[in-house]
Design goal:
With 477 residues, this protein is of the alpha/beta class. It contains 16 helices and 23 strands.
Length: 477
C-alpha cells in the first residue's frame, strides 16, 4: 500500500509521542470526521466554534488510522481505543507536518494571493498543469491558518507541482503561511476593494498581500498583474523583500507575459499571448475578461516553472467554472429554457463588475432578458454605501433588463439606480426568493452574485429545484 506518511515519519514531524499500536502508515490527513476516509489520520483541531476532540469517537467509527490529539484532552479520551499521537497543540503539530511536507518535496511550488481571482487562478493552474505532471493543490478555498498547513501536509512526496492559495482579512496573516509554503513562483492576481473594512486604503491592502514575497525561494520569481494600478507599489515591495525576479502579466505593453489578441464569447474566450518570447494561442473554457487575466498568470507561471507552455495552453480549453464562481446551468421552464449563472460564492466591487459584464455578454433570444440578482458585498466598512451605489453607473451602461436586490447594504444601490432600470428590492434572501421564482421567463439569463455570508446560494438551489435541468444541461462556463 502507498502511504502519504509512515507513522514513524508522522511522529517525527509532529514531535508527538505515540500511544497504542501504531499502523504502518496513513493514507491521508483529515480535520473533519464527516469526510474522513478509512486509513486517514484525524487531527483534532480546536477551532473558534468547535473542538475536534469532541468528534474523536466519530473519527474512529469512520475508520481513522490514528488520531492526533492534545495532551490536555487526553484524560477525556481515556476510554477511546485507537492509536494516537499526543502533542501539546494539534494545530501546531499540523503546521510542523506541513513544513516537513514542504521540506521533503521536489515539486515546483506556486502560491497565489490577491483580492479577487485567487481560487479561479489556483483551479486553472491545477487543471492546466495536470497536463504536464502530477499536481497537488488546495481544496476549495483552504487559504487560511489551518487550510494552508493542511494542504501542505496532504502534499504527496512525488508530485511535480504544488499550488497553494494564500488569503487574508488582516495585515500579518500571509507572512507565517507563505514562510511554510516557500513558493518558487508567487502570484498576486489583482488588488481591489475586498476586506476594505479592515484597511484604510487599497495601498494598505497591497502591502498586506505583498507579505507573500517574504517566503519566495531565493531563486524564485514574483508574477504581478501589469494592468493593476498597484503594480509599481507591489514591484517596489517585492524588491524590498529581496526578490530579484519580478515579472508582469497583462495587456500592458511592458508585460513580460503579454496579451496580444482576445476574443470574448458567451461561453469561452480565444487569446493569443506572448509567453517566453513566442506567441501562444489558447481557447479558454470559461468566459469573461477576468478569466483571460487569470489565464495569463497561469501561462506565465507555467513558463517560470519550466513546464511545456503549449501543452498547458491546450489544457485551458477544457477548464470550467465552479459552483458559485460562474458555473452555468440550463434550466427548463414549461415553455422553454433559461440560463442560470451562479456567482454566489463571493463578491467585491471588482468581481461584481466582472460578473455584470459577463451577464451583459451572455446572448439571449428574442424576448429573453438579462436579470442581475445582486446581494451585499461584505467587509467594506465605511466605504460600503459608496461602493454599492457606484454599481448603478455600471449597470446603467449594460443591457441589463432587470435588477433584483436584497440585503441592507444593497439598499444604497436600489436608491441609486437610474429611473430607466427596472428593479425590485427586498430586505433579505427569503423575501427575494419568491420574486425571483415568479419573474423568470423562457429565454432569460439570470446571474446571481453576492458575498457568501448573504446566502444567495439558496437562491441558486431554489432555481435548480424549481426548474430542474434536463440530463446533460448543466454546462461548463
Amino acid at each position: 500500500m502507498s502511504y502519504l506518511w509512515t507513522s514513524e515519519a508522522l511522529v517525527e514531524a509532529t514531535g508527538g509521542r505515540p500511544l497504542g499500536q501504531m499502523p504502518e502508515g496513513i493514507t491521508g490527513i483529515s480535520i473533519d470526521s464527516r469526510s474522513l476516509k478509512p486509513g486517514e489520520a484525524f487531527f483534532a483541531i480546536k477551532g473558534d466554534a468547535m473542538d475536534g476532540h469532541d468528534f474523536a469517537t466519530a473519527a474512529v467509527k469512520a475508520g481513522a488510522g490514528l488520531l492526533v490529539v492534545a495532551e490536555g484532552k487526553l484524560p477525556a479520551l481515556g476510554r477511546l481505543m485507537a492509536p494516537m499521537i499526543v502533542v501539546p497543540d494539534v494545530l501546531v503539530a499540523l503546521e510542523r507536518l506541513g513544513v516537513a511536507a514542504r521540506a521533503r518535496s521536489r515539486a515546483r511550488i506556486i502560491a497565489v494571493t490577491g483580492s479577487v481571482g485567487k481560487t479561479s487562478t489556483k483551479e486553472a493552474l491545477r487543471h492546466a498543469l495536470t497536463s504536464v505532471g502530477k499536481v497537488h493543490a488546495s481544496a476549495a478555498s483552504f487559504n487560511n491558518h489551518w487550510g494552508v498547513p493542511l494542504t501542505l501536509a496532504r502534499m504527496p512526496e512525488d508530485c511535480d507541482y504544488g499550488v497553494f492559495e494564500v488569503g487574508m482579512n488582516h495585515p500579518g496573516e500571509i507572512s507565517p503561511l507563505v514562510r511554510m509554503v516557500r513558493p518558487h513562483v508567487a502570484i498576486v492576481t489583482l488588488i481591489a476593494a475586498a476586506h476594505l473594512g479592515f484597511f484604510s486604503s487599497l495601498d494598505e491592502i497591497a502591502r498586506a498581500k505583498a507579505e507573500i514575497f517574504e517566503g519566495v525561494e531565493p531563486d524564485g520569481a514574483v508574477l504581478l498583474n501589469r494592468d493593476d494600478d498597484r503594480f509599481d507599489l507591489l514591484e517596489k515591495l517585492a524588491h524590498a523583500a529581496g526578490v530579484e525576479n519580478i515579472l508582469g502579466f497583462g495587456e500592458d505593453a511592458r508585460a513580460d507575459f503579454r496579451l496580444l489578441k482576445c476574443t470574448l464569447e458567451a461561453d469561452h474566450s480565444m487569446i493569443v499571448a506572448r509567453i517566453g518570447g513566442r506567441d501562444v494561442a489558447a481557447r479558454l473554457g470559461a468566459p469573461g475578461r477576468h478569466i483571460v487575466q487569470n489565464a495569463l498568470a497561469v501561462l506565465g507561471a507555467a513558463h517560470l516553472c519550466g513546464a511545456d507552455v503549449p501543452t498547458v495552453a491546450t489544457a485551458l480549453a477544457t477548464m470550467s467554472a465552479e459552483s458559485g464562481r460562474g458555473k452555468r446551468h440550463i434550466l427548463q421552464l414549461a415553455n422553454g429554457p433559461i440560463t442560470l449563472i451562479d456567482e454566489s460564492y463571493n463578491a467585491n466591487p471588482a468581481s461584481m463588475k466582472a460578473a455584470i459584464e459577463l451577464l451583459d455578454a451572455t446572448p439571449v433570444p428574442n424576448g429573453g432578458r438579462r436579470i442581475a440578482v445582486l446581494g451585499d458585498m461584505l467587509e467594506l466598512g465605511a466605504h460600503s454605501a459608496q461602493l454599492h451605489s457606484a454599481l448603478a453607473e455600471l449597470i446603467g451602461s449594460t443591457r441589463t433588463d432587470l435588477v433584483l436586490l436584497a440585503g441592507p447594504e444593497m439598499k444604497a444601490l436600489a436608491d441609486a439606480l437610474p429611473a430607466g432600470v427596472k428593479s425590485e428590492y427586498r430586505a433579505g434572501v427569503e423575501e427575494l426568493k419568491p420574486v425571483l421564482l415568479d419573474v423568470v421567463q423562457p429565454g432569460d439569463a439570470i446571474m446571481i452574485k453576492s458575498s457568501k455570508g448573504i446566502g444567495f446560494s439558496r437562491l441558486v438551489e431554489a432555481m435548480i429545484k424549481t426548474f430542474p435541468a434536463e440530463a446533460g444541461n448543466t454546462i461548463p462556463a
